[in-house]
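Wait, mind explaining this?

_____
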Amino acid sequence: MVRVNFLPLLAVVLTVAAEAAADQHTLRVAVERKERAKVIGLTQQLETMRLTGGGLRIGGGELGGNADDWQIAFRWAQSPKEKEPSAEGEKTNPDPWPRVSSSAADAEKVRAALLEAAGDSFGDQPGADWHIGTLPGGTKQVAEIVFPDPQTGISKARQFRVARRFVALLMRKLGMRPADEKTFHAGIFEGRVLGNYDAEGVGYGGSTLLDRAVDDTSLDARVLPLCPEDIREGALDGAAGVMFPGGSGKAIAKALRPEGVEKVREFVAAGGGYYGVCAGAYFANSGLPEYAALLPLKHHQPWRKGKGMLKVVLTEEGKKLLGSEFAEFETRYNCGPVFTEMLEPPADSPENKVTVLANFASAVSDKEGTLHNEMVGTPAILSGRWGNGRVITVSPHPESHTELSPLVARAIALSLGLDPASIRIKDGTKQAKPEP
């Protein structure tokens, strides 16, 4: 649940601020959320925003005092309320909109400001019980926005986007920044940045497991959470690669919309790296017309083959690139794509050649008890090219197991055109047994 509290003079402050000199205004933003060391969180994203005047202070801690014209706190908490169960009794995600009682004067103008920042990010408009409240004390204008924990299934990347847009909106009203809508700036893309898709079509766990694989290893890259709106606006332009976790390839394509899918294709064709696991592997192939079709492959039907622990064996090429210590390993599998027919690329497109790096060495049973032996000997990890870019797809879920983090990071390195041989577990990182 998102709870938003503002002091009642917001409308007056915004009007006066627009008329005052920019260098008279100061804005303090507190972000109470910890990220892995290599994840570009909201704090770092806000730090790269350009100012034309005034002062911006970003950090953690409690709000208070009168040193700043505006103070904003972004916090996260477990959502106490979920949407009503569906007709089938399935559990649904909590409402991402603010739901808190209001005592603020002129709250509708505050509501309008937040709606402007959110745009169509959350889909449906908030319900009638969505309100703005006030914070006690003698401080100047203070806003507290409490997002529901992303583990409830809500996109962290989208929460970050709304927070960036809200801060940008306030800064424009205060005359502190240009009147442009883009909130990703060049400073975010210093060094090597990996976009990590975190929205509809993937689970929160999938994106965080890829975060872990990068953070636990010596892979020289930082991870930037992205939602479909970010990608459609060109956020991949400054990135070195993009990762798509497990979930539903069709749902990923639907969320991106055709223009977002085309952005991904253009990014890879121009030399960007692509790493897709399970749903991300489906999305990269040609099995459905809405997919990105980066590889000339169509998955075997039925796609819903079941889940369990499977044995995977690296090919000779896979051993060279991913490490002979992973010549044979067991990993979690959950209905990932199975390619029983390897399609040959057109003769005039040798860059689209697909290389098998690992094969399945055991089979899984579906809910009806059917053992899918047809998957034994088919590719589990593939490497290919699309234009000038490299594509790595992984059908199972090695990112679920910390001891396989080097293998995952090496595969990601391959997508970036880096030498995977140097990728190791970072000193001090704990190794755990495979997760069930």
Q: What stands out?
A: Residues 1-22, 82-91, 98-107, 432-436 have pLDDT under 50 and may be disordered. The chain is about 25% helix and 20% strand. The chain has two domains: 3-173, 191-422.
